[in-house]
Specification:
By secondary structure, this protein is an alpha/beta fold. The chain has eight helices and 20 strands. The termini are close together.
Length: about 350
């Protein structure tokens, strides 16, 4: 009998893992609870650092979804069990699938900005998240935000829900800083007269070309970076916002009026990942993301033979690193099965 694998999650990691396994001659069932593949990639417009259209990356991933892959969209999992070396995945509609290996690729969710009540998200009209701004750009609806305005003052708040003990997340989400820089440039392109301020704790431009984009933001576009964590945002009668923070480089308190406040929300483990982990008895790290069997050899296997991890179930990562990780997972699954 041919060996089979089930992949749970149809985002970037799940699609690429499925594609690579199919190329290796392994039959794959790819399960996605939404009505389409792509996951969070469907919410992004242009990708850093070269501002590539996200649809091009999706098209590349979609090319790998071939006849060796059975798709199960709009499908939710009720239970997972293992008997001997075989897995049984039961759906909520009563159907079941069987496989020799299981890959968890259920990704992440973004931090719920409403938990930071002091920033006014969900309370004030002109406080939005970075994800919402990206969707405005993707759907070409940015005029809903900027209609009739030739000059504007915009504040961008870094580390919302990350590196924050009160929020329960001590880790860095890695991609918020570069997202803020990219979005600041895109706003400046739309509104050349806008004043844009990025309020940051530390700038972590860790990947190739990220630092260059940060310098470009300052030198070419005049975007201003202020080191300090926002303490409060309050709405004025005209619906502008008064923000308060401490400039930690000068040690001085700062008040500023802005027309729009953008919150750069970080990554958190998805509830679905944690639910599946509980079913299987998988190990979570202190950050609540899933842990592989060995952190040092960068293996994507788990303590349960035949169960593998792919992508951001293990923690924050960008698209390129997620694709690389998915390919590594596929090779490890293939080695296990053969």
């Amino acid at each position: 009998m041919s060996k089979t694998a089930i992949i749970i999650g149809g985002g970037v990691a799940g699609m690429e893992t499925a594609s690579q396994l199919a190329r290796l001659g392994i039959e794959v069932d790819l399960i996605e609870k939404q009505s389409r593949l792509g996951g969070h990639l469907n919410s992004w417009n242009h990708l850093f650092p070269n501002r590539r259209d996200s649809k091009e990356v999706f098209e590349y991933l979609e090319l790998g979804i071939n006849d060796g892959i059975s798709l199960h969209l709009n499908t939710e999992i009720e239970a997972i069990s293992k008997t001997g070396e075989r897995f049984t995945v039961a759906f909520r509609d009563g159907k079941e699938l069987y496989s020799d290996a299981l890959v968890i690729a259920t990704g992440y969710e973004v931090f719920d900005a409403r938990k930071k009540e002091e920033y006014g998200y969900g309370i004030y009209d002109n406080v939005i998240t970075s994800v919402e701004l990206e969707e405005f750009f993707r759907n070409n609806k940015q005029n809903n935000l900027f209609e009739g305005i030739t000059s504007k003052r915009v504040g961008i708040v870094h580390c919302v829900g990350s590196r924050d003990e009160k929020a329960g997340n001590l880790y860095c989400s890695k991609l918020c800083c570069v997202t803020g820089v990219k979005q600041a440039i895109e706003i400046k392109e739309l509104l050349p007269d806008a004043e844009i301020f990025c309020f940051y704790m530390d700038l972590r431009m860790f990947d190739r070309h990220f630092e260059e984009m940060y310098y470009e933001a300052q030198e070419k576009w005049g975007i201003q970076f202020i080191r300090g964590r926002l303490s409060e945002a309050a709405e004025n009668p005209d619906h502008t916002l008064l923000v308060k923070l401490e400039d930690t480089l000068t040690g001085l308190p700062l008040k500023m009026k802005v027309d729009l406040l953008i919150l750069l929300v970080g990554f958190v483990p998805s509830p679905e990942t944690r639910r599946l982990a509980a079913m299987l008895g998988l190990k979570e790290g202190d950050d609540r993301f899933l842990s592989p069997a060995d952190e040092h050899t960068i293996t994507n296997s788990t303590a349960i033979p035949g169960v593998f991890l792919a992508g951001t179930v293990k923690g924050p990562a960008g698209i390129a690193n997620t694709i690389t990780d998915a390919r590594a997972t596929a090779l490890q699954v293939a080695a296990y099965l053969k």
